[in-house]
């Protein structure tokens, strides 16, 4: 009788715990219709059921504790997503700043390249101008040398021609002197002949 009283008290405690516990969801716990019916109270002749079967309560409290854990998991996931978004936002800003900095550097490099190209072009133009000036100077110098050579040739030609004229004039003067000498010599011969004739006439007389 004591054993039966203990079993009935335990059944009453299990039933009270099941009634006070929150109802599980349809997916987590089986419906009440599927639960096995409580065994009928044993008579005095039937032996009591084994204590192991009566001691195992149904797993109702564990199934009831699962919904709060799922809600906590979703809340934790939302918080993690929010934290990830707040962490990604500064990274995106840093990436944008880096991209802007790279664009500025590219623009500076392009400006430097353009300036360097302009400087090279100016240097080439200056070199070409210097070459043209040197060529003009050389051409002018050559032209001056040619003019000087022509003047020297003209002077030499004029001097040589003047000398030839002087020599010719001097030679002509010598010829005149020779002619005069010849004429004078002829006169002397005539005078001598006349003197001889006079002497001969005197001798005859």
TrEMBL record:
Domain of life: Eukaryota
Bias kind Low complexity: ranges: 15-32, 62-84, 91-137, 145-155, 188-205
Pro residues: bias regions: 33-61
Region of interest (Disordered), residue spans: 1-205
Segments of skewed composition (Basic residues): 156-174
Protein name: Uncharacterized protein
């Amino acid at each position: 009788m004591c054993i039966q009283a203990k079993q009935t008290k335990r059944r009453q405690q299990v039933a009270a715990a099941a009634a006070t516990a929150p109802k599980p969801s349809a997916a987590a716990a089986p419906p009440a219709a599927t639960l096995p019916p409580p065994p009928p109270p044993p008579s005095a002749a039937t032996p009591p059921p084994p204590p192991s079967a009566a001691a195992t309560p149904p797993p109702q409290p564990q199934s009831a504790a699962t919904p709060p854990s799922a809600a906590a998991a979703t809340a934790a996931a939302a918080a993690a997503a929010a934290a990830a978004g707040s962490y990604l936002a500064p990274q995106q800003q840093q990436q944008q700043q880096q991209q802007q900095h790279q664009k500025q550097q590219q623009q500076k490099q392009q400006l430097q390249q353009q300036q360097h190209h302009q400087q090279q072009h100016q240097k080439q133009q200056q070199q070409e101008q210097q070459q043209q000036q040197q060529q003009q100077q050389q051409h002018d110098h050559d032209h001056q040398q040619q003019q000087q050579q022509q003047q020297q040739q003209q002077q030499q030609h004029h001097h040589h021609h003047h000398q030839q004229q002087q020599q010719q004039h001097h030679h002509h003067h010598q010829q005149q002197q020779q002619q005069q000498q010849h004429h004078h010599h002829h006169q002397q011969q005539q005078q001598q002949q006349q003197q001889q004739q006079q002497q001969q006439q005197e001798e005859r007389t």
